[in-house]
Amino acid sequence: MTRPHKVQIREVGPRDGFQNEPERIPTDDKVRLINALGRAGFARIEVASFVRPDVIPQLADGVEVLEHIEVPDETKLMVLVPNSKGLDNALKVRDKFHEVAIFVSASETHNEKNVNRTVDETMADNDVMAKRIVAEGLDCAAVIATSFGCPFEGKVDLTRVLDLAERFAEAGATEIGFGDTTGMCNPAYASQFFTAALERLPDVEVTAHFHNTRGQGLANAYAALEAGCASFESSFGELGGCPVPAGSTGNIATEDLVSMFHEMGVETGLDLPRVIDAAREAQSVLGRKLTSHSIVAGPIEWAASPR
User: In what residue span(s) does the Pyruvate carboxyltransferase domain sit (predicted)?
Assistant: First the structure.
């Protein structure tokens, strides 16, 4: 498959990134940062999660964030729900977002540690939720965590992952995201994986979600792109990670991913300097240095114009 000349990038920092921060981020700061991301040109932003506030207190203000952010009308906002109860709560403010993400771990052990349910129990609930989401006129996206490896079980079988993806698609998901939850992928396997995924799921948007835990995130994104993947998720400032297990550091930095794509002549629709400005503002809000390269180096001058 030929390399795509244009890609979509969903910014997941306001949910996937913020949820791992130990110090409470004020709601006003979250709103200000999301608004800055909207001005950078993101067509898709993941902004909130309807999980129990005692489990992830950092995201307890999701409704307030949704009510106060001001992004362009064409920006699609996504929320994540862990189960049917979370979906019930999300639908109380159904007019505030456009997409709902549901999820499962391909690894049985990781799924039980993450959501305290078996994969079969999670998927039974996901089947129900997907149909409800579609019936509400919302886009349904499914996420499969530990798609490339599990810190507890090791190798995760490719066929198992794609079987779960097909089940999501049959339930109504129009996008399947494959998560490298603890940074266990490598470029050779990313190429093999996305070649197989795109062949098996021709009618579904296939999305790559890499973490930079072991420094291979951008290389994996490049391999996925070369395999034909045109949809990615990333987090400004390289925020994020996975609470299970400890040490699973953040997503690919959005500004680094955009910089790489622009240098390769791949369009993103994003204003790179504004993405970097938003990441630097997040660094200021959090009061610590973030780990993306572009925060320090800035854009390469001839790639600095909006794409």
Answer: 7-276
**Positive or negative: CA dihedral 98, 18, 261, 300:** positive
Please list the active-site residues.
Answer: 242
Mean pLDDT of 259-284: 97
Q: Is the pTM of this model over 0.90?
A: yes
Q: At what angle do helices 272-286 and 254-263 cross, to 10 degrees?
A: 160
Give the Å distances, CA to CA, from 144 to 60, 91, 125, 150, 227. 24, 23, 14, 12, 19
Question: Two tokens at 80?
Answer: 């994540």
Residue by residue, what is the 3-state secondary structure of 6-74? ECEEEECHHHHHHHHCCCCCCHHHHHHHHHHHHHCCCCEEEEEECCCCCCCHHHCCHHHHHHHCCCCCC
